[in-house]
């Protein structure tokens, strides 16, 4: 699971791309020289451009997924260079392929460098927090936040609207982002303290640092309590989810009641068949009541969490 929290106000397309590939997000907001291209990109581009010039159909067919438009374009290019060979001879064919190779090399070098996700990361620097950006203690708290939030948002009872009054899809990402922002500030202050301690520490500096460290400890504990509340909500949601899964199974079984009644009536009295199916229906009713109680407990924990944070 990716220990990444994004600003919920980011463009949705950017959010999805960044969440899918957090490993591509850059640690530095400064754009690298040459757009992230390296010396190794030049020979790689030349090698691929040669293949595009002389054997475009073979190269396109080997691409992952074999996109139809790519293969079709490569087939046309392959037919064109072969037609040049047949019509004008080997020398002209070779010169045309060199020209195609030159154009392909320029295009491949233009496409090399940073991925779009890295570009989003630089554009939105400061609007995402990854565990690798934090001190170990703060990174652990971030992972707990991500885990608890994901449990709720991926839960079938939230997906099916049983917790819709809490507006989890809007509320939880914002709460997670607030926690991530606080963790970022805690990490910044911890690093400042470490830097101050690396120099000459006088008695007065030591006193100030001790006071600041106490403030950091208090703030960390308060934030940990907030994260614990999220985890309590996630735990209640998981408990309700287990009951919900059992209830849905029994509902499916109850829908087959007519088939079982007919089956039983063939071998025993109709009264026994009705009794058996009736017991199944009664179990489903009791479980439905249990599900209602479990979901209500989860909702109450979530509402308490929102009231406490509000």
Labels describing this entry:
310 residues, mainly alpha, two-stranded antiparallel ribbon, flat, transmembrane, membrane, 2% strand
Within the largest sheet, what's the order of strands?
1-2
Computed Rg: 31 Å
The number of helical elements comes to: 12
* Number of structural units classed as domains: 2
Based on DSSP secondary structure assignment, what is the total number of beta strands?
2
Keywords: Membrane, Transmembrane, Transmembrane helix
Topology, please?
Elements: E1 4-6, H1 12-20, H2 41-54, H3 56-61, H4 68-88, H5 90-111, H6 116-123, E2 128-130, H7 136-153, H8 156-159, H9 168-197, H10 203-255, H11 257-265, H12 270-309
Antiparallel strand pairs: 1-2
Helix pairs in contact: 2-5, 4-5, 7-9, 7-10, 9-10, 10-12, 11-12
